[in-house]
Each structure stands twice: as C-alpha cells, then as structure tokens.
Amino acid sequence: MEKYFHPLQSSEDLDPLIDRIGDSNYVLLGEASHGTHEYYTWRAKISKRLIEEKGFSFIAVEGDWPDCYHINRWVKNIDNSNDSIQKVLSKFKRWPTWMWANWETAAFTQWLKKHNERLTDDQKIGFYGLDVYSLWDSLDIMVKYLQKEDPETAKLAREAFHCFEPYIENEAYHRIFRNSPEGCKKEVINLLKKVRKKAHTYDTEQEADLNAEINALVMVNAEKYYKAMVGFGEDSWNVRDRHMVQTLNTLMDYHRPNAKVIVWEHNTHIGDARATDMTASGLVNVGQLVREQHKSEDVVLVGFGSYEGSVIAGSSWEAPMQKMKVPKGVEGSLEHKLHKISPRDKLIVFNEDKELKKAFSYRQGHRAIGVVYHPQREKGNYVPSEVSSRYDAFLYIDKTKALHPLNIQPNGKLTPETYPFGI
C-alpha cells in the first residue's frame, strides 16, 4: 500500500495533487481541527501554487463575512492603509478569535498582499468569509453604508435593524429569534431583494456592491439559522452549510467569467457528507452541495488528518483557549491505519489506482476536532467515513503541533501574556 503514498515534505511534493486538480474551478481544502499549525501552512502552500500556476481568483473561508472582508480590503490595498496585518486581525472579536487571528493566517495574507501589488484591481486575489454568524455586524454595516449610498434602501435596512433592536443586548442569538416577531424575516428578505436589484449602482468604491449583497444575505440566513437552533425550522447545520454555498455561488458569479475558488473549511464541511453517517441524520454539507451542483471533474475535495500532536481549542464554548494534547489515533481509525503503514507525512491521491481507492472505500473512524475539544473523550471524536469517496485526496501529517494564536480576546485586546503556554 505504501507504494501509492507520495512523500510530503516540501511544496514541490504537491505536484501529484496539482496534477489531480488540473483545470478544476473548485478546490476545497479541509482541516481536522481549527487549531493545528500544519493544516494552515499546507493549505497556504497549496493555495500559493494554485494562485500562481492555475490562476485561482480568491480564497473563501469558514469565517464571518465582515471580519474577513477587512482582510480582503487589506490584501487588495483598497483603503491604501499602512496598518499591520496584526491590527487587521485584531478586528476578529467573536470567539474563537484564534481561528483566523493567528500567525499562520498573518503569514499567508502578507504573501497575498505582496502578490497582489503587481496586479491590476480586477486581477487581485480576494479573501472572503462564508459563514452566517455575524448578524449584528452585518446589520450595522448595511445601515451605515446605505445611509450614505442609497437612502431609499437604507429605510428598509433601518426597519430590519429596528425589528431586532430590542434583543441586541441579549447575546444568546437563539433566544433572540425565539422572541422576535415573525415579521423580522419579511423585513430582511425585502432588504435582500432590494439590495440585489440595486447592487450594480453601488460603485463608489471597489466591491461595494458585493459587500452590500452578502451582508444582506447574512441577515436573511442568520435569522433562519438561529430559529433552527431552537427547533423552529430546518436543522441549523443544514441552514449554515447551505448559506455558505449560497455565499460561495454569489462570489463565483461576481468573479466570472474566469472564476476559480479555493475554500478553507473543516473536514466536516468540505468532505462529502454522503460518505459519512451525516446522511442518516438528514444532514448535508458544503462538499456534497458543491459536488452536486457541478461536474465531477470541476470539483476537488482535499481532506487532512494526523495521528497525534497538540492543538488549540477550548474546553467549552467561549472558554479560554488552551494548548491541548491530541492523543494517538484510536485502534482501527484512519489515522491509526496510516501511522501503522508508515509514520511519515504523506499525500494520497485516490484516483491514481483502483486498488488504492478500494482500500479506503470501507467505512472507518476519521478524527474531527472542533473549537471545543475534550481529549479524554477521544472515541467520540471520530466520524465514520468512506474516505476515498469523502475526499479526492488526503494529506496526512503524522505528528502535528498547535496553531500560533495572536492571543486576541473576544473584546479585541491583544493579551499575549495571559495564557499558560508558550507559542
């Protein structure tokens, strides 16, 4: 079996993956945790090659639109700002701040800004967030922007804002939407329709039309998402992943005719849900939906995993981040199998050989670590997966180390001295 594995030590070792990607327009790069150094750095290496060699248009990540849009403006120098990337990343104030406010993201975006300096405005590579969490930020941005650019539509934005305003101080979004009137949904949908109709007129600055449309889209789907959390609609997971695909489609339409996207999200979002036990629970995800919407040769899904190491995570939602030990992969898991074959980092491209694809076609546990992690409950962190159907390729790193956060607290302050571990 080892004869089918490619060594994984340098960017040049990615050649088999770059060949597999070929002329695909959608490349989805996963991660087995949100707090592992190597997942970020290998995604960066792949992305650099795709941008330089294959002409990819933008990066879309599992992050909030308003926060990631600050990065987008910075790498494109839209504001002609002399701010450091550390200052830009300090705008990430929602927990878990470390997910994008980290040294690894800083290094990649600095490279991206430098790469963009030699390109015209319409050629510059973007960096966007796909997620749905940023309701209040999106509301505030819409009201302030439209008051200046489109007073008529600004009235609708203010009406939507006032609809939720009595609940803004309550940060538990699911309680907000349990109590908010049904008419709130109508308000934000009317706003989205109006913005989409008039977005082409918002041309006072670069990408103003795109920013307005997606902030309005966030408002629509955030309402669906938080109502789903309390049982008033479709499962919240499906609402969230459908929103991310809807946002992705909006971005692709905006960047056409030659649009090509690299997506950075967790394996649980980019690995095809149909090859896991998610389907039995009625769940879909980004990888499945993108595959269903496009030709098979136009989409490449790349998973990541490791046998042991360390990770940044929290013991509960909004808990202080910690550097935690990642135990060795459990017996019978994908990670254990790959370590047992050889404890070396490796790249696997499943369509290179029928025997290889078959060997990874049976269902086995595949580790998934979230922003909340309990190593002592390790057996519950494995997703039953038909790996060669879930992904087109897989990067295995035998021993990983924790991500390097900028130590930004949810209030936005830099506090590198407050956490009990060195980075």
TrEMBL record:
InterPro entries: Emycin_Estase (IPR007815), Hydrolase/PRTase-associated (IPR052036), UCP036794_erythomycin (IPR014622)
Gene3D superfamilies the record matches: EreA-like (biosynthetic domain) (3.40.1660.10), EreA-like, domain 2 (3.30.1870.10)
Source organism superkingdom: Bacteria
Pfam families: Erythro_esteras
GO BP terms, alphabetized: response to antibiotic
Transmembrane regions listed in the UniProt entry: none
The protein's name: Erythromycin esterase homolog
Organism per entry: Salegentibacter echinorum
Upper taxonomic lineage: Bacteria, Pseudomonadati, Bacteroidota, Flavobacteriia, Flavobacteriales
